[in-house]
Every structure is written in C-alpha cells, then in structure tokens.
Amino acid sequence: MVRNRSQPVSNSNRVPKNWPRDVAYLAVPSYSKAVTTELLQSLNVAPSTSINPLSSTLLKSPSPIIHITPIENNAHPANGQYGLFAAQHLPPSSFITLYLGRVHTSAACDTDPASNYDLCLDRELGIGIDATHCGNEARFINDYRGIKAAGPNAEFRDVWVDVGNGKLERRIGVFVLGAGRSGRRVKGISKGEEVLVSYGKGFWGERRREEESGGGEEALVSWDTGNGNIEEVLGPPTGALEM
Ligand SMILES: C[S@@+](CC[C@H](N)C(=O)[O-])C[C@H]1O[C@@H](n2cnc3c(N)ncnc32)[C@H](O)[C@@H]1O
Asked: Global pTM?
C-alpha cells in the first residue's frame, strides 16, 4: 500500500458539509516522514487476544451518521466554533467514526505541543494523531465539560482496520459509551445530540497552565466532573487529548 507521506492533501473527493477550506479532509490517515516502516510495524503488532477488525461498511467518508455544525449558543463554551452532532440515533457501544489526522512521532520537529487536535495513538512508541491541518469529522468533537452535566456520551478506543491482503492496522475510533451496568446510558446518543468525549485531565491542565503562564511543570486545575463534583488535580505537562 502506498502511503501519503507528503504534505497533507485531501484524499477524498467529497468533503462533509461545513468542512473548513484550510483543512485537508482525510478518508485514510496521513503519515509524517518521521513515521518509519519499522515504527509502523511496531504499532501494528497485533495483541495476543483475537482481533475483530472494524467492518469496512462502517468506514464511509464522509460519514452519513454525523454532521459538523456551527455552534451558535452563548451558553456553550465552544460558541462560535463547531461541534459534531448525531444525524441519526446512535446506539450504545456503536462505532461512530475513526479519528484521522497526521500520524506523527514525538520528535520536537514532528510534533506541535500547542495543537488542540492532537490525540495519543501509542504512548510508549510516542505516536500521536494531529488533526490541526488535516483530518476528518472527529476533529470537531468537543469535550463534555461545561456542556453536558451528565458527562461524556462517547469515548476513544483502539480499533483495528483491515487494509487488505490480510493486513491489519491500528487506529483510534470514537464509540458511543456503553449502556452501563445500571442501564443509565441505554438510550445512546439521540438524533441531533452533540457527540461529546472527555479530553482527559491533562488537556485541560495544560490549557489552564498556558492561561496562567506560570511556567511550572504542573498546574493545579479544577473542573466539573460532570456529576456536580469539582475535582482538583495536578495536571501533567501535556496538551494532548487523552484516550
Ligand atoms: C478538538 S477541538 C474541538 C473542535 C472545535 N470546537 C472546533 O470547532 O474546531 C478542541 C477545541 O475545542 C474547544 N472546546 C472543546 N470542548 C470544549 C469545552 N468543553 N469547553 C471549552 N472549549 C472547548 C477548545 O477551543 C479546544 O481547544
């Protein structure tokens, strides 16, 4: 398979409605030159447990089950930006979309610590997916804090994709949260509802640190955990979205 290792360019003929002109729309990942074949081989070593790759029928680009919508609501913390919304009912635990972007290493010249769209793919290998300049619908998923008191309704999960010739590749997927033991999320995500994840404490810790520009390695951050409690933690010096 020939990989796109050049500057990000759209690798899909069609783009979703409201797609920004200055961001390349991807249907498959884009790889930085620093992501070597050896690194990719390490990334794609299958775990010993049996793998159920995602069905290719779920990988439509653009996706018909979600839409990117401008947020015009003063009470929404991302007012004036965009969010990702369900175009149909999404059942608990169902697959929503892949998180696509530029797959990059943690080398200083290959990573952007200020990115608001960088998701860790493999911490040990130092591989991330940055959707600042190229990506798909998933780059518009907001964090639940300040939006939905009940907490997130979706999460990032490792997934495997069959790329042909019996080869599997590791990616990150966005899934509706499971119904939960008590069944409190049994409804899944309703049509028209915003898809919301948790970016993790590290992301918001870094944002707070930047705002306060204290320059320390860690910052004390507090946030609404979604169930009415306010927690305070030392945020690690990372601005990446966390799995
Ligand atoms: C991955 S982007 C999400 C999409 C973004 N709203 C857009 O239109 O491009 C992450 C950025 O969205 C905004 N954001 C997401 N969730 C937020 C929240 N709960 N509160 C405030 N800002 C949020 C922040 O500006 C953050 O840096």
From this structure: 0.85
Nearest-atom index, ligand 1, CA of 83 = 6
Distance (Å) from CA 216 to ligand 1 centroid: 24
Going by C-alpha positions, the residue among 131, 69, 144 that lies closest to residue 99 is: 131
Taken in order of first residue, the domains within the chain and their CATH numbers are 24-198 (2.170.270.10), 201-243 (no CATH)
Give the tens place of pLDDT for each residue, 87-97: 999 999 999 99
Separation CA 19–CA 23 (nearest Å): 8
Question: Where does the pLDDT of residue 233 fall: very low under 50, low under 70, confident under 90, or very high at 90 and above?
Answer: very low
Q: How far apart are CA 222 and CA 205, in angstroms?
A: 8
Q: Determine the Cα angle at 105 with ends 104 and 110, to 5°.
A: 75
Residues in CB range of 140: below 8 A, 6 or more apart: 68, 82, 83, 84
Q: Which amino acid is at 141?
A: I
**Ligand 1 centre distance from Cα of residue 48 (Å):** 36
Does the C-beta of 143 come closer than 6 Å to ligand 1? yes
Q: Is 203 a pocket residue for ligand 1 (Cβ < 6 Å)? A: no
Note whether 85 and 154 are within 8 A (CB).
Answer: no
- DSSP-derived 3-state class of residue 40: helix
Structure-block tokens of residue 63: 């996706």
**97 three-state secondary structure:** strand
